[in-house]
Design brief:
The protein is an alpha/beta fold and about 450 residues long. The chain is built from 16 helices and 13 strands. The structure holds uridine-5'-diphosphate-glucuronic acid.
Length: about 450
């Protein structure tokens, strides 16, 4: 098998297919990445990935190459996992994907299978199939399939090998069966459907999850206004099996390379069909507003202005267990604080440099809080659960903690506030202030 593209999806796909017993070559146009992989390095930080990569390499089942032609021409199946970022209009930018298709078409074996894993707008795989029919001899029996991926960064290997469901999009039952054979060892419901249906399932799933998060955030604002806890509300509604409790965690909002982009792509696709996706527009607007909700909360304790205050941002990655900062809420909060005249120091356990941004990055989480007026937790890394609150308070100038992921237990924090004179805030949950007077810098 050939896997085109060595991003998150590509590398996890390549290593996992090797885990299933297939012989895999991962191909990328980026020579440095291939050199790094060949020399035993890892271009991304993903728990568990390095282990399965090393196992597969030892078994001789996984290799890397920049030579797409050589890899593709002797493959039974070619997986395309090339990124489809947002273009300026919001539509998915398919240029890199098409370049790869153009490049490999002449090398595709006659009875090969081209499996598109990249997230693409409905209709793309049919266009690819039509292009191949035009370019390849009539004798070619090449088939196109769409097999979207639902892995999450941070738990990608498990999500790939133990999925909730697999989607096999194809134009005919033979192609469905070939996908079934490739994934035979994986036990999960396997949905066989058309190409366009498969394409839509991927975007619609991400949009639905984003909508759930925005719903929780909308409720969180109401809970704040009423002085009640969004935790209880989310638990209460989530236990209804028709709703489900996952992705109902209120906080700083969603980020990453998938939800924001897929929402935009779905809205752009619908617009072409003269449809207005009101629910998705609201989902996006609520997410965008999270940073203002955080600003207001901070202003409420600093007498209406953040000017001159020192903030510590805990977490830069868009979520824990990844080094990815794409569309990370932390960066938006960073900009907001900067614009408001604040001074900011940031700390993240794995994001240790951001080449294009002038960010004051500390290498130690306590050092980052020195002389700080407020620690703002933006990524729910486990490290932030067990902080030494006494030590932190001693280092800080003022006693404010804003948990923008609602990751800490309010009862536990109430005890810490009482003990160390901290003031703990979160989103959609009552704040905790100690009985003792606060010492503010
Ligand atoms: C998402 C989907 O969950 C995957 O199924 C999909 O395969 C992937 O996109 C993709 O399209 O490739 P991912 O972007 O890795 O995965 O991250 P998630 O775990 O879904 O989290 C996305 C964002 O939502 C994060 O910023 C996270 O902090 C936030 N989030 C998540 C919340 O704010 N509240 C929640 O309850 C859950």
């Amino acid at each position: 098998m050939t896997v085109m593209g060595t991003g998150y999806v590509g590398l996890v796909t390549g290593a996992s297919l090797a885990r299933l017993g297939h012989e895999v070559v991962c191909v990328d146009v980026n020579k440095d990445k291939i050199r790094l992989l060949k020399s035993g390095g890892m271009p991304i930080w993903e728990p568990g990935l390095e282990d399965i990569i090393r196992d597969a390499e030892l078994e001789g089942l996984l290799d890397y190459s920049i030579d797409a032609a050589a890899a593709v021409s002797c493959s039974d199946a070619v997986f395309v996992t090339i990124g489809t970022p947002s273009s300026e209009s919001g539509e998915a930018d398919l240029s890199a994907l098409w370049s790869a298709i153009y490049a490999i078409t002449p090398m595709l074996p006659d009875d090969g299978l081209l499996i598109i894993k990249s997230t693409v707008p409905a209709g793309t795989c049919e266009q690819i199939e039509a292009y191949l029919r035009k370019r390849l001899p009539l004798s070619s029996r090449i088939a196109v399939a769409h097999n979207p991926e639902f892995l999450r960064q941070g738990s990608a290997v498990r999500d790939f090998l133990v999925p909730d469901r697999m989607i096999f999009g194809a134009a005919n039952p033979e192609t469905h069966n070939r996908l079934e054979e490739i994934y035979a060892p994986i036990q999960s419901p396997k949905i066989k459907c058309g190409l366009r249906e498969a394409e839509l399932i991927k975007c619609a799933s991400n949009a639905f999850l984003a909508m759930k998060i925005s719903y929780a955030n909308m409720m969180s604002d109401l809970c704040d206004a009423l002085g009640v806890s969004v935790d209880a509300v989310a638990e209460g509604i989530g236990l209804d099996r028709r709703i489900g409790s996952e992705f109902l965690r209120a906080g700083a909002g969603y980020g990453g390379s998938c939800f924001p982009k897929d929402l935009r792509a779905l809205m752009a696709l619908a617009e072409r069909e003269h449809l207005d996706m009101e629910l998705l527009k609201a989902t996006e607007a609520i997410n965008r507003r999270r940073v203002q909700v955080i600003r207001k909360k901070l202003e409420s304790v600093f007498g209406g202005t953040l000017n001159g205050k020192h903030f510590t941002i805990y977490g830069l990655a868009f979520k824990p267990n990844t080094d990815d900062t794409r569309e990370s809420p932390a960066l938006k909060i960073y900009s907001m604080l900067q614009e408001a005249g604040g001074r900011i120091t940031a700390y993240d356990p794995v994001v240790t440099c951001l080449p294009n941004l002038q960010i004051d990055l500390a290498t130690d989480m306590y050092e980052a809080a020195a002389e700080s007026d407020c620690v703002v937790i933006v990524t729910d890394w486990d490290q932030f659960r067990d902080l030494d609150w006494g030590r932190l308070r001693q280092l800080m100038r003022s006693p404010y903690i804003l948990d923008a992921r609602n990751m800490l237990d309010t009862a536990v924090m109430a005890a810490n506030c009482e003990r160390y004179g901290l003031h703990y805030m979160s989103l959609g949950r009552p704040s905790v202030t100690p009985d003792v007077p606060l010492t503010i810098g």
